[in-house]
Design brief:
mainly alpha, MetI-like fold, 12 helices, transmembrane helix, cell membrane, transmembrane
Length: 279
């Protein structure tokens, strides 16, 4: 038998350190310069928190953040609903006429360039604006619809993969006991795929919050999301307020991630205790 090669543990740690340094040192530099006294982000002039104060006094940034969070939550929730329906159709309806076209249209935004998607949606809203007053002015509604369009594709993939692994014997047993299909769906299927629903919602929320290209096509002067505000300000020169905003977002995401990990670890320990007590 051939011996399994044993790699030097020292070089493993070196490579791991290089990878993590490449990923996280720029973030640490950004956080460090958010406490810079100077207006120049690359020149250290002393410790100060004045940019955090100016950040909360910047109405344009705060309004952009509120709009992005609102649209992100709405788009993620809607995308989860549509994505669940689409994944359920693909997995449970079997072969039907137009199945290939339906699957292609659902997953098309995954590979479609953002510029093409944004331009297509812009032309759609301009055409609809000639007949419906709702689309005459582009704003929060058009951004929300655009974000739902591409977020649904990602959510569908996540939930579809979970439905493929789902044991259908539990659903069949419930139906054999007389449970109607809608009750099986809401009381058995949905609770079983809840982790996938949560993952899809978080993924859609992140994509919506981060989107710049598509939002720039379908937004109007009455609705400016946070990425558009940040991009517009960066074009005139990076302000330390952007560093402060990024630092706060990193802090919030880190706390949310740690809380999610703690809850999952706690649930896993509880499940392991129940298994040991049952045996």
């Amino acid at each position: 038998m051939n011996a399994i090669p044993v790699y030097n543990t020292k070089w493993k740690w070196v490579m791991l350190g290089l990878v993590f340094s490449f990923l996280y040192i720029p973030i640490m530099i950004l956080v460090f310069y958010s406490f810079n006294e100077s207006r120049l982000v690359t020149v250290w002039a002393g410790f100060s928190t004045k940019w955090y104060v100016e950040l909360f006094n910047d109405k344009q940034l705060i309004d952009g953040l509120k709009l992005s969070l609102t649209i992100g939550a709405m788009a993620a929730t809607t995308a989860v609903v549509f994505g669940t329906i689409a994944a359920f159709v693909l997995q449970r309806f079997g072969k039907f006429r137009g199945e290939t076209s339906f699957a292609f249209m659902i997953t098309a935004p995954l590979v479609m360039p953002d510029v093409i998607t944004g331009l297509s949606l812009l032309l759609l809203f301009i055409s609809l604006g000639q007949f419906f007053e709702l689309f005459a002015q582009r704003g929060m509604m058009t951004i929300w619809i655009a974000h739902v369009t591409f977020c649904t594709a990602y959510v569908t993939v996540v939930i579809n993969s979970r439905l493929q692994e789902l044991d259908r014997s539990i659903e069949e047993a419930a139906q054999d006991l007389g449970a109607p299909p809608w009750k099986v769906f809401f009381q058995i299927t949905i609770p079983t795929i809840t982790p996938a629903l949560a993952a899809g919602w978080l993924l859609a929320f992140t994509l919506s919050l981060d989107d710049l290209v598509i939002s720039s096509f379908v937004s109007g002067p009455s609705a400016t999301t946070l990425p558009i505000v940040v991009f517009s300000s960066v074009r005139l020169g990076v302000s330390p307020k952007i560093n402060a905003l990024a630092t706060l977002m990193i802090l919030i995401v880190s706390c949310a991630t740690f809380l999610a990990w703690w809850l999952m670890a706690r649930a896993e320990k509880k499940r392991q205790r129940e298994i040991r007590s049952a045996t």
